[in-house]
User: Fold this.
Amino acid sequence: MLLPLLPMRDGVAPSYMWVQELAPGPALAYLLARFADVTESTWRDRMARREVIDGSGVVLGPDSLLRRGLRIWYYRELDDETPIPFEEQILYRDAHLLVVDKPHFLPTTPGGRFLHESLLVRLKHKLGEEQLIPIHRLDRETAGVVLFSLRAESRGAYQSLFQQRSVGKVYEALAPAMPDRAFPFIHRSRMVDGTPFFRMEEAPGEPNSETLIDVIEPRAEGMLYRLQPRTGRKHQLRVHMAALGAPILNDAFYPVALPIKEDDFINPLKLLARAIAFDDPVSGERRRFESVRTL
Assistant:
């Protein structure tokens, strides 16, 4: 395990990169070339705070000469990050496992325009757990139950549950009614990368995705469905429901990708990871965790 040479700061673990070039030159010029979106003043400020170091712990300045094979540690920072006005809720915690009820709009891990406003960084900041790692992930737009590992020595055992499809997952979704369908039924399809790049789509060929679909109750907005994915493809439930002519309410990606705009906090995607169940590989107990949220 690679140990960081900078401490966790406000829940943010340090990032690192390897110098691959034969003659990289001075540190500031090199970093400006590698990170076009980060200004010179920002790198100078980080260096002045002694927050850019090499793999031996030596603080790097603007004129520090780099060499090929050097590892550089630094903190990723974002300016003017938009706050997500919803809070996560811890459902369970023991020595190895943390179970959290994630709100809509909050990404599971940092990425793009989200850093501090991600579930992982929020939890690290609040709990001070540097080894915290998500065992699986939910889309930013989806709310519900997420599992985190607290200890490296047991992490693989929990991750293997998902790899072996030994985890039962139940979702709920609000979508238009499908009056011509007999429930429950199984939808299988072949899912591939779509266009634009962030979408998935169905294509001819051997199925690689499977979802059991049932109805729970009618609602004013449509029908409340119970969805049980047997596989874990990206956007699987959203793609399957759209392909069946019943796209999940407020889905900005399916069946058509809408123009990118600011988050509509009043109208979240009507998809909830309701429950998750499995045999705990450490304790041997049967576990079931359920979200307290509703659609």
About this structure: Residues 26 and 65 are 4 Å apart (CA to CA). The longest strand covers residues 209-219.
